[in-house]
Amino acid sequence: MDFSELKLARPLLKAVGEQGYEKPSPIQEKAIPPVLEGRDLLGCAQTGTGKTAAFALPILQRLAAGHPNHKGVRALILTPTRELALQIDECFENYGRYVNVSHAVIFGGVGQAPQVAALGRGVEVLTACPGRLNDLIGQGFVDLAHLEVFVLDEADRMLDMGFVHDVKRVIKHLPAQRQNLLFSATMPKEIEQLAGSILKRPVSVKVDPPASTVDKIRQSLYFVEKGDKKRLLAFLLADPGVKNALVFSRTKHGANAIAAFLIKQGVGAAAIHGNKSQSARVAALESFKAGRIKALVATDIAARGIDISELTHVFQLDLPEVPETYVHRIGRTGRAGAEGTAVSFCSAEEREYLQGIEKLIKKKIPVVKDHPYAPGAPRPAQEEEQER
Ligand code: ADP
Ligand code: MG
After folding, report:
1. Which end of the chain is less packed: N or C, by CB atoms within 10 Å?
2. In-domain check, residue 211
3. What is the pTM of this model?
4. Which of 343, 325, 365 is nearest to 46 (CA)?
5. Distance between Cα 87 and ligand 1 center (Å)
6. Does residue 184 sit in the same domain as residue 132?
7. Ligand 1: which atom is nearest the Cα of residue 47?
8. Nearest CA to ligand 1 atom 22
9. Mean pLDDT in each 10-residue stretch from start to end of the chain (388 residues)?
10. Cα 66 from chain centroid?
11. Is 38 in the same domain as 184?
12. How many CA atoms lie within 13 A of 362 on its CB side?
């Protein structure tokens, strides 16, 4: 399918073309028509599937069709983190280049004066993090009385980060008559309940990671004892073939320990997770994108929110209990037709998870047996020294 088949106006098609998008992604193909019709929507698709354009394009089209005589917000997008808020607002800038729809972004951790000034000038599309938005609503700076479209982005992450109460507080300020869109990478029961309370007769759109994407990713598995995982990781990262790597850690503490170990071994690394300050996360992400550090160590939740388009490698230090998580993680590489490599470590305790994963992906992950930390193999001399 082509973007032009989606009944999008010419100025939007032009902007999308300039972004280099050739075809709508599956979630865009499915979500754009009902959103253009004004329907409520429940969209479930993992990170990187193009959810932003799936709501931003139809919103821009609807808002560009007529500008009312008030300065109130017409579309509100709630998203959990500053990085995401900035990314979404930038999409409205890019996609909306040839339509006349004003937009702004608000989040905490910075002075509120410029945000208040923007609101005062009138903002049609407001992207916001819930905490700061509630602050500004409380101070009377945000007019939501005329809201036409409400978007809850990354609903599951919002829940994980404990923002549900804030979200519900925002919703209390919205007019009853409005269009609602809810996007989430996963659909746990709590999200279904939340969706049930927000959406009216929604169209439900779900996109699974296409098997073909996963097929394109070179996967390999290393059996390694728990205590050797960090060393094996440092060893593999030293390969110049690894341009950049997203390393998954089950815990925040683990992420810190892994990053610290890599740095000690001379591999540029940083940890990124919910306990880090916004500015630390932004700085780590920028260093990584600029190629100043090779490895970004993240928890699943932190990794989900970040958009890195050219990732050559994904490492999983632990196999996940939930097989779908394996697919989500490896799907972070090999984007947009690029070749990606996914390397996973499996300790004796994790063998049981391997079965479920291989059943889901319907193939055996090739095992690399010949490596310095293979269980039972003689350890490299240098490492033995360090151990004593
Ligand atoms: P999500 O919100 O689902 O995580 P994003 O909306 O952030 O995904 O999009 C992920 C990346 O894909 C972005 O870099 C975006 O520019 C790109 N993208 C979105 N739609 C398309 C498309 N139709 N064709 C090519 N790239 C796209
Ligand atoms: Mg998104």
Report:
1. C
2. no
3. 0.66
4. 325
5. 11
6. yes
7. 4
8. 21
9. 92 94 92 97 88 97 94 96 93 96 95 96 97 97 97 92 93 97 89 95 84 76 95 94 92 92 95 79 87 92 73 92 86 71 94 90 90 81 46
10. 32
11. yes
12. 4
